[in-house]
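To the structural biology subgroup,

Please find below the input and predicted structure for DBR1 enzyme, which we are adding to the shared reference set this quarter. The sequence is reproduced verbatim from the submission form. If anyone notices a discrepancy with their own records, reply to this email rather than editing the shared folder directly, so we keep one authoritative version.
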Amino acid sequence: MKVAVAGCCHGALDKMYETLELLQRRHNVRPDLLLCCGDFQAVRNEADLRCMAVPAKYRHMQTFYRYYSGEKKAPVLTVFIGGNHEASNHLQELPYGGWVAPNIYYLGYAGVVRFRGVRIGGISGIFKSHDYRKGHFECPPYNQQTIRSAYHVRNIEVFKLKQLKRPIDIFMSHDWPRSIYHYGNKKQLLKMKSFFRQEVESNTLGSPAASELLQHLKPTYWFSAHLHVKFAAFMQHQANSKEELPKATKFLALDKCLPHRDFLQIIDVEHDPNAGDSLEYDAEWIAVLKATNSLINVTQSSWNMPEMNGLHAKWDYSVTEEAIKEVLEELNHNLRIPCNFTLTAACYDPSKPQKHVEPVHTINPQTTEFCAQFGLTDINDRIQQAKEEGAVRGSYEEEEEEEEMDSTGSAEEPSEYNTDNSGLSSINPDEIMLDEEGGDEDLSTCSVDPSPDHPPDFSASFSDIRIMPDSMAVSSDDAMDSTNEELEKSGVSKQGEEKSLNERPLKRIGGNENGNSGVKKIRRRNQAIYAAEDEDKTE
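Predicted structure (tokenized):
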């Protein structure tokens, strides 16, 4: 089975799908599945732009709304995770995953699905230590803080994924697992992105949570994006026992969608030839969701997941074969994910711009149906209940807070996961700073710059397309220079032309390098990641 993997597409769906069509015409290669590693930007209308945490100059409608409205349909099944530049209000409707448009599926805060027997997992957002131990408490209309914290990874999602025992074939994260750069051509990486040097040398570049998952899940492939540079690595895992067979992970970070960039990669993945062509639920993952449902938290108080420290009656939430069998029986052994996409917001109309529409906190029928089927808590419904009971968002009463914590212990107990030693307690070096050029911008303004109805021909932007080799760059830094050069050649060069990202406002709806130090330096470094001008300098 051929799988196409994309980095940050930033809403440029037309360009991404045109690339796949060009690939088929020129090389007779037709991917069966497209994966996108975040910053997908499923923006439906002007209100969604208000919920996207990017500077105003990057807020543009782009082309997703055409797929949402039904004007267009994705030519290939597309599965994506969230990044740190998303219409958070839209994705929040689907905490357990769901269809954002026909043939385009979001994995949720964390999720695992199957396609043709291939097991695909992912975790959305980026790591930020001061939000890591909080619940999912945010909802639109967001403020200057929650518009950002909404996309920060939470410990409960990592905990759920760590309960998985069965092998994972492919895993996606937006930010890189911390330390992965030590398993690839680090010298070449720093040559291309010299402003990474401080974080690489101090081992603070990337997500410690993702690194923990990499060590636990040991997937065959791990794909990331976020840093807007292509990078390959190969990590050999240590066996946990004499009986366990050695495992290795092929890691690949993808560039963003720009002209003359290798922002797409094609890989061949072994699959079950007897499996159907439908996207399917993963029975073990559903069983884990059911087992961990009591741990759901919608407060912003810090808390820890259960662990074997004498403070918890239960700490192992992994599931038995019997629990998995029960899920299969509930579904009559039909794991096919229903095509139950539903419009939950008005679609952008270029002829009738509505710049002052505010986003609304919406409960999506897909989530309602999913939770009812498997006996799960609808996180958005829980948030609504808390608000109706007089708990102001982000400031619940102490009694409710303690009740939520009963099964997991005190918020003050030491965490199994020492996030504060990461060096990221105040600033995440991976996160693009949004207060460039004079601080945060007014969330109440929104300018819409829709994509042209007739996009240009990108055929001249593509270089030769090649399939990823079976082995990717490995070993120590010095041994990897020539190896990584081959890896760079193995990319499927694609187009992309970047039209600045989306724009902004909020509300609700229903049913550099060596010079400076400190914050200023990090801002510059992160601006460089995001800005296309910096990308051109590294070519």
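Summary notes: The chain has one domain: 2-393. The first strand starts at residue 2 and ends at 6.

Regards,
Lab coordination
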